[in-house]
């Protein structure tokens, strides 16, 4: 986990004499240039004409969208394609390819010769070449890896210049990877005698309601030192302490007993902190704070997956790392909002598909309560895309795995590692050896968590032994092979490491309402009746049945929680499709209908009663217009303008009738659609209505938060919708809206969730999609009030006030 250090500064200059350790976050003062720049690494290089940016930064998200960018004429063999076709928008059609340079000049004060300095990158997209004061200090390859360099003998007291060159090849990704320094960069300054980078490992080999054993291993540099470790509970009370001078090979090992611990779980994400103080005599040499949780995990044929001794199934989603309209530049407020939406869904687990998660996301998973499947690679040695990770596997796989585990292993949220996703190495004996080598590498770094690989070539992995050697056999789709895999594999349980890949567009409904694979429409949208999927995938219910009926299935990770940039299946070859249709939630963060289908079974705290479609079908009068309800109730009665359409009860006749209530023969007439949920005695227990809206009349603004931090980074997400003169939402409105932000903040971006929109996210104007869009407002560093005003032709302008405080 990210250690919280004694001092955390985001200034570009810092004095570190008095403190044992300090961290300089290199956020501000960066200069950026897209393109090659000869001698840009040199100290005196004139970068005054370059763009001033803050890091994290994604250079490509500002567009423009262009179908020629990274156009891939390929057959996607893992999708069963045999003939190459022209894929536009596969990687988002945003300008991430090519070279970019970043430079930062900063002051370091009181950096004495006996100090140590570490330069840490939490992700750099990609192939970074790093220069300090004109000299190359190192390089890396994988854009998702965390890495650091010891710059103790290169950092100068006074002015320093850091220059980073990044380059992204064409044909290097299957989705939008982003570009640039999209995750934090920092410098850690500490004493020569100090705790090593990622040197603290905390495990809880005993974790029961009565007692826990907290084992802390601390790697350090120096001699004759003493380590004092103090544990604090979530309220900051000191609960235990241990001091030791005994070390072996520069590692201390302490075992601390905690009575009646609060066990960490998604339902009770209780966190402790450990403060590690390193002394030479009485002198404090280093101090590191680590957040941790006390919990146990266990996987077995008898009990499946157990957290704290209780069997449970993962109610998980796969997420890509982009944050929609702000791209890949990591932002904690955006991540928190995403995870709040997932909490309300009842989701309890996240898979970082298909790469290392950000530290921020893991911190939030610990705090908010999500179990985490931390993945590493989408490719090993055999390519999926020509310039993918296959180019780096031999040189970097070991280092990338080590850094992943060392940097993140203290997060209680992480309950499993993934060594890869659908790697073509599933075929052939070399791949089996690679799987084993990687798994052992994970085990060496972390003996406490199992390793999985998401497998799509299930038959091949049954034959080769690939599936049998994994700690956790993960199946991607292939619901028809679950039984056979369970029989053939020795583990005694199966994980749905990737499921569903059902596609839909928010608020779009197509007729006739039929189940279909790879269905395409002239408007490049998919139907929100949730009956459309891919040739390799399935509908949600096919997974629900396995999850509910097979005790040996230990859960699922649905593809995907949110839409993401790139991979616009089934419209891979249809310009201007440029983002995915897989999400339960759209790219703007607005739930689609499908969200409520999952919510109706995952969220066991709150009731779900959701009806679809909308009821604005001018021209469909007299025609069959099916109505579905996604609900936690078993039965309901539907009314159209007060006329009963009958009672539907969930039943086993088809996968869909088991989980959805469906009235397939409803004849459309404008007015009110009302669903009344019933108990087993047919007594009404809840109801929900949808009304036909008139013309767009007014705007409605709803912010996810109205009190922001005045830190220049915090974001409010304001959902904008259009209503008619009676306040009824207009579900088909497409008005062009304009945004104006004044006061202590600025307009950051807008997004409407339309996968075919080429409007730029950072321009203060956008068209509504299915009556809605979201505006992102960012705080400044000044305390005060922010006003967002939204206007549109023929509509009454509306505004909302947000407060910011320090
Ligand atoms: C899977 C793959 C994902 C995504 C998904 C789309 O096979 O692992 O990355 O491509 O298909 O359905």
From TrEMBL:
Residues 622-686 form the DUF4982 domain. Residues 304-571 form the Glycoside hydrolase family 2 catalytic domain. Residues 699-801 form the Glycoside hydrolase family domain. GO terms for biological process: carbohydrate metabolic process. This is Beta-galactosidase. InterPro entries: Beta-gal/glucu_dom_sf, DUF4982, Galactose-bd-like_sf, GH, GH2_Domain-Containing, Glyco_hydro2_dom5, Glyco_hydro_2, Glyco_hydro_2_cat. Belongs to the glycosyl hydrolase 2 family. Residues 50-173 form the Glycosyl hydrolases family 2 sugar binding domain. Residues 1-17 form the signal peptide. Residues 201-295 form the Glycoside hydrolase family 2 immunoglobulin-like beta-sandwich domain. GO terms for molecular function: hydrolase activity, hydrolyzing O-glycosyl compounds. The keyword Hydrolase applies. Keywords: Glycosidase, Hydrolase, Signal. It comes from the Bacteria.
